[in-house]
Structure to design on (744 residues):
């Protein structure tokens, strides 16, 4: 792995090793020197967890028994995602940074030791397996008080380049099936660190949602010869009523069968399998639509919207021509002071019930006045 | 539909019509007369909602656009699930009751007018359908301050008889595919009425979870000739370490791949497809284990545990020999003051990450001291 690598859009990546052996990657636009050392005492790394099969539905569950000690809503002075200062040593040894990605200190999934494979026999006697995978943390900005929607277009472009770089590298690991960059935002959904950041989970198994999307896309292709997601985007463009924002290279819409009070899919107009395949033009015009969508979300109720922003990508080793990159943003807030909870029907049966039509939420999002 | 019907265990059902035409069913053990009339002004019923297909995963989403006006955490004096008093007219016209089941005033699903069928072509152009189904409310007790775990064994037996009666009758409706009795308990999971109650959703489509369980059970049967759930229960009995409670007719265990901090499956020792097929002995010994399990849950942290208690039954028209009745109780509480949130990995990818091994939570549940 090269320590310094020049990426697209003037971004240079600089890899450094942390005190406990983890890697931190600085993504910079001004060729900064990154030489600060991690001066913290070395703490023992938790061991790898366990994958167990839930045979009732044939889904893997990852058990990471050592995460209960995670730091929980620390005050700003103790934030592990702020730059290191004289007052405190954080996860980021430098006193300033643009965007960094480092190995998660409490990973749910981690690289296996030596040979690894997922058990293939499926039933009550399926053996367990080490919880193989990679978990990384993406810091969007050194500014503790910002959020993604406050970033400059330049910063968003750098974040995108970091996501693209991580997707490319993680896809090369032979035990990885799926790379998933995402952001959880808001205490309402359990965020434990307020500093603006996202995460990347690289799974060693196909996550249930990806598996189900692949099954539907495969059936649809067999029946029609078309790619399902492309036909869905075409339908949204035709219907128009659920479109929230668009530019030459991206479209953002509330899907016809949205299952959250606010749900937005952001898709490139020229479809691709994953972030690494985006054209330069698509990359360069992503910050505009990303910021617009998130700013609209925050202004619907004029309170910072809790959300999950999830990059769905084609899996690394299959379905590359059947699944398409899109960014799914979902919020459980249905009104100020009211959240949508996933209770009996959703949680136990997977059957979603929605109070609000997608056309309503699309209109609310469009009617917001934002200053571009 | 007969107005008065004698069920098992000395329970008599008495059907009455509410002011707006909905049905309320009293389940009584002392042949009480139920003649009180619903004296409230008639309010207009909301229209039937809409089913839309999410083609990305081939799942139906129900849109019930008129539920945003639901009553939200009313004070006890305005509780619609308490008996009617001189001070206020509630959903239950009688001044006392044992167990009642009535049609939900704000149903997510409701019976269709005339002919109804689910669209069979599956893709971006799948038409919508009326959101057919039935939603009912089950009041466990007239006592506002109780919870299920406080009921007497006799009351639990009557609740069970009500669930069985509703399952039998709802299964006879030609537009129903699945009958799902459940209880949401606790403000943490969005319960809007504190009065102890459950709900019944009868779906006109196979809920995604049932569909996935049916797919796994079918594959397993084809490979082994065995019923998957039976083999899973046999494994739990063999392993023993995750068993929480048992009696001659029921077993309660934390499943090997539990996906919530506390998850308990309660299953009859003699497997059946649904509640209507339970033997008299199994019915009569259900209250003991149900109360023990819920009391253990409440005493793990000595705070009332938020939970979802869900009856998984075989669907009405298929898989009757492949899927088995079991009661799944899940709680998101992992410690006092800490909940498990379904964030990026679980919510967007369906990939569950657990901090706690099932063997740990089973031990915590067993070690609780309860007074039987």
């Amino acid at each position: 792995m090269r320590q310094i690598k020049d990426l697209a859009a003037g971004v240079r990546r600089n890899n450094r090793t942390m005190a406990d052996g983890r890697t931190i990657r600085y993504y910079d636009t001004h060729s900064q020197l990154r030489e600060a050392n991690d001066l913290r005492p070395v703490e023992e790394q938790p061991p790898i967890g366990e994958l167990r099969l839930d045979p009732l539905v044939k889904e893997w569950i990852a058990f990471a028994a050592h995460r209960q000690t995670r730091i929980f809503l620390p005050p700003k002075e103790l934030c592990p995602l702020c730059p290191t200062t004289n007052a405190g040593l954080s996860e980021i040894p430098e006193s300033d940074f643009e965007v960094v990605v480092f190995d998660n200190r409490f990973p749910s999934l981690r690289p296996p030791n030596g040979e690894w494979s997922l058990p293939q026999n499926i039933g009550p006697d399926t053996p367990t397996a080490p919880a193989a995978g990679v978990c990384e943390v993406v810091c969007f900005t050194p500014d503790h008080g910002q959020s993604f929607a406050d970033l400059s277009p330049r910063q968003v472009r750098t974040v995108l380049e970091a996501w693209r770089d991580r997707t490319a590298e993680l896809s090369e690991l032979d035990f990885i099936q799926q790379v998933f960059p995402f952001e959880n935002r808001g205490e309402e959904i359990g965020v434990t660190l307020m500093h603006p950041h996202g995460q990347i989970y690289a799974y060693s198994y196909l996550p249930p949602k990806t598996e189900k999307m692949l099954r539907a896309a495969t059936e649809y292709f067999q029946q029609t010869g078309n790619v399902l997601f492309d036909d869905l985007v075409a339908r949204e463009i035709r219907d128009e009523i659920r479109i929230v924002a668009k530019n030459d290279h991206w479209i953002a819409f509330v899907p016809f069968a949205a299952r959250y009070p606010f749900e937005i899919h952001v898709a490139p107009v020229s479809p691709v399998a994953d972030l690494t395949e985006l054209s330069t033009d698509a990359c360069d015009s992503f910050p505009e639509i990303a910021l617009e969508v998130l700013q609209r979300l925050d202004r619907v109720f004029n309170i910072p919207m809790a959300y999950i922003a999830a990059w769905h990508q084609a899996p690394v080793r299959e379905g590359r021509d059947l699944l398409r990159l899109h960014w799914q943003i979902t919020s459980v807030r249905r009104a100020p002071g009211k959240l949508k909870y996933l209770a009996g029907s959703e949680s136990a049966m997977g059957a979603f019930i929605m109070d609000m039509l997608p056309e309503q939420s699309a209109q609310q999002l469009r009617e917001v006045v934002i200053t571009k």
